[in-house]
Amino acid sequence: MKIVILDAYTENPGDLSWAPLAELGELTVYDRTSYAEDPIIAERIGDAEVVIINKTPISRETIDKCPNMKLIAVLATGYNVVDYNYAKEKGIPVVNVPTYGTMSVSQYSIALLLEICHHIGHHSASVYAGNWANNVDWCYWDYPLIELDGKTIGIVGFGRIGQAEGRIAKAMGMKVLAYDLYPNDFGREIGEYVDLDRLLAESDVITLHCNLTPENTGMINKDSIAKMKDGAILINNARGQLIVEQDVADALNSGKLAGAGLDVVYTEPIKADNPLLKAKNCIITPHISWAPKESRQRILDCTVANVKAFIEGNPVNVVNK
Questions:
Q1: What confidence tens digit (pLDDT) does each residue in 130-161 have?
Q2: Is 35 within a domain?
Q3: Catalytic: 287?
Q4: Is the pTM of this model over 0.85?
């Protein structure tokens, strides 16, 4: 069995081991291939039966050029970079990693919120710049500081990650509102399910943890922002396409939104003309909520299990059945 990994570096920059995959077949590893359609993708796949990718696209054209391909394994939950419907037509299962980052992503969402509330990075940098040593007062702050106890957090998408974040927020004294298409008793123990309009109207903090669908693409836009409290805080480390970036930038610059913490943007890597780069009170990080070593190890472990199950004739986590 020939196995090829096309864009290995992000998942494993050197702190994990591919050895468990190498035990399953003849393994070839490329740190980077391409994040856009390119002939090199099919060239590197060659006659491999198992293709492992993170964000390298696998198109209809690539599938046709690689007739020996029998399995596409994605080192992530999202699989939109694969033409999975055409793969299904060709009898090629596409498998993903459905659960791996619940705690890391929820923790990161809260970290973005706390950074907005306290601007810890900024104030630490100001101390190292000498501003405290030269200050006439015994302390100072350059931004308003926000206490979260007693405030309301509205979580859009109350699945595993949303509920994990809700537990953290509740432990900090926040009231938790949730919007989800599928309410459940686990969620009711953490917060109150409400409709989206009420969540927008009553929340001091709004966080997004929903899957991206055609129906919710651009759900945070000028109309939904108008329904929010003045001075609300927006957190998004789900999918960049959930927000209309120009509308969010306008709301930040006008003060309608007090701040935003974003780990995802519409096009990644971020483009130099993204309006959020010039917006006020906007923290942007390079899509790393998922990336602690512990989380990446779970991705690797699940991928090994996916490939092994396929080899044994019982594929699991198939997204294009």
A1: 999 999 999 999 999 999 999 999 999 999 99
A2: yes
A3: yes
A4: yes
